[in-house]
Design a protein that fits this description.
6-stranded antiparallel β-sheet; Beta-Lactamase; 528 residues; 7-stranded mixed β-sheet; membrane; elongated
Length: 528
């Protein structure tokens, strides 16, 4: 068996075949009547309209055959499309190309074959009208002419269907250009408009005639024309996609921000593009940024104005609590103590707000340096021992390292701040008598710092908001365990600035573990 050779124009032929939009479509009576007529006229059991793609022959119409397709490499039609005239095999068993073909030795037991090529509108041979018999035979000249005429009929139907599909496609495209809210256009590479949707007139106020007499560059504000011309130059140089924004003039003298997405076609010399009016979005974004700046400036100003007197108040109350003015009446001492604690809480809130504002505005500078991490854990634990005693919670440090020292590039003060936030949270949410563990281990070349409590765990509904600003599990819990809801958000940002990612694992009744990894470095090294 000899598989059919590949035609010299195969890429063009396949493109023409696909442009017909017929492959794998339902049966059409216009083709079915042709194969019925062919089977009756030539008195053969099988007649087919066959289309040949890369790997198969697919039957658009068939008479006397159940199969819908067969492989191309065993097809007779694959040979037939190589010739502009009728291809005839009088006896397949005597033909060296087909004598051992599975379609000859098995069903449908082809002995006689005659196929005339079918051409697409561009002249490419995309398939055949073919006749098959189980007995050897031949075709006379008159039979060949008749088969060619029937094939011509099939080609007329191919073209008619193709023209109908093309017409429908154009109608759909026209409708799409009419109703699209986006501004669709086809332009030449210099920006001259060749086709515009109605949205252009609706958005900019110009008539179609006025728009077609201008160009993409001419529509741009004078300040944006150089940049717009530069984008078109990139298209002519071979850029596959253009994405840019510019301001376009309106007929009433105003202007709109347009966001462009364009695909150049160098072969056609055309630019297919969609422009979207994003003026409102730009104005909203500008306003959002203005409000954000005002908010940050307000927070920073108020926080600084509050912190200076509050620091003085806290210091004075602390001195009173310490007995600088002598023994206080019990009730007075109690009230001064409450005021001192509340002033400390308010000062922590102000400091947290300032830290958050610095991080969001990119003004927080960290002094990263190789630091022995283990001593910092002990330092934080000692600083929180009194707080833990208030809640009846035991604290421990576990350092599990083969070497005595482990260095990472951190800002020492900010590292302690992160641990303080994590440790104070763990203490607050631990039942009395339970243990909170501060740990340091080495994992795959990184130092892992962890804080484990044995509290109730983080509610599932709250887990996605743990690191958000002012996030707290619920109001009743907040009253029992006071906090600003900023600590974890700040800790998350600080860990990220030091090269790690703060994460947590939690389970109901089993507690919560917060941890982060930091790249380990050599003492005194300038990089991690």
């Amino acid at each position: 068996m000899l598989p059919p050779p590949t035609p010299a124009d195969e890429p063009r032929r396949l493109q023409a075949l696909r442009s017909l939009c017929l492959l794998d479509t339902p049966a059409h009576e216009r083709f079915d009547r042709i194969v019925r007529a062919a089977s009756h006229l030539f008195r053969v059991p099988i007649a087919l309209v066959s289309l040949i793609d890369e790997n198969r022959q697919w039957f658009k119409a068939r008479q006397g055959l159940d199969a819908t397709e067969t492989p191309r490499d065993v097809s007779f039609c694959g040979h037939a499309i190589l010739s502009p005239t009728t291809f005839v095999v009088p006896d397949a068993l005597k033909d060296p190309r087909f004598h051992d073909n599975p379609l000859v030795l098995g069903a449908p037991f082809v002995r006689f074959y005659a196929g005339h090529p079918l051409r697409a509108p561009d002249g490419s041979r995309v398939g055949t009208l073919c006749l098959i018999d189980h007995q050897p035979r031949d075709l006379s000249d008159a039979d060949r002419a008749a088969l060619a005429d029937l094939a011509g009929w099939a080609e007329v139907e191919l073209s008619a269907l193709h023209e109908r599909e093309a017409r429908i496609g154009l109608e759909q495209q026209e409708r799409f250009f009419q109703v699209s809210m986006d501004m669709l256009c086809i332009a030449a590479m210099d920006g001259t408009f060749l086709r515009l949707s109605q949205a252009w007139s609706r958005t900019l106020g110009f008539s179609e005639a006025e728009l077609y007499s201008t160009s993409l560059v001419d529509l741009a504000l004078e300040e944006d024309r150089a940049a717009t011309s530069g984008h078109l130059a990139r298209a002519r140089e071979g850029a596959s996609v253009l994405q840019f924004e510019h301001r376009a003039r309106c007929r009433d003298g105003s202007w709109r921000w347009l966001q462009w997405n364009a695909v150049p076609d160098l072969e056609e010399g055309l630019l297919y593009a969609v422009a979207r009016d994003v003026t409102q979005a730009r104005l909203l974004e500008d306003e959002r940024q203005r409000v954000e700046r005002m908010k940050n400036e307000f927070i920073s100003t108020v926080s600084h104005e509050l912190r200076t007197p509050l620091t003085s108040i806290r210091g004075s109350l602390g001195l009173l609590c310490g007995g600088i003015a002598g023994p206080l009446d019990a009730e007075v001492a109690r009230m001064v103590g409450i005021a001192h604690k509340n002033s400390e809480r308010l000062l922590r809130l102000i400091n947290d707000i300032l830290d958050l504002e610095k991080m969001e505005s990119g003004r927080m500078d960290l002094n990263l340096a190789p630091t022995d991490v283990a001593p910092l854990l002990s330092q934080v634990l000692q600083a929180h021992q009194g707080y833990a005693d208030e809640y009846g919670v035991r604290l421990e440090v576990v350092v599990d390292l083969p070497d005595a020292r482990a260095h990472a590039r951190v800002d020492e003060d900010r590292f302690i701040q992160v641990l303080a936030n994590l440790l104070s949270n763990a203490i607050k949410f631990s039942p009395q008598g339970e243990r909170v563990t501060l740990s340091l281990t080495r994992e795959a070349g990184a130092l892992r710092v962890g804080v484990q409590d044995h509290g109730p765990g983080i509610p599932e509904a709250f887990q996605g908001r743990v690191f958000q600003k002012f996030a707290q599990a619920d109001a009743s819990d907040t009253r029992k365990r006071p906090g600003t809801g900023l600590g974890l958000s700040i800790a998350h940002g600080l860990v990220a600035r030091m090269g790690g990612t703060l994460r947590f694992t939690t389970a109901p009744g089993a507690g919560t573990r917060f941890s982060f990894d930091l790249p380990e470095c050599e003492p005194g090294s300038g990089a991690a």
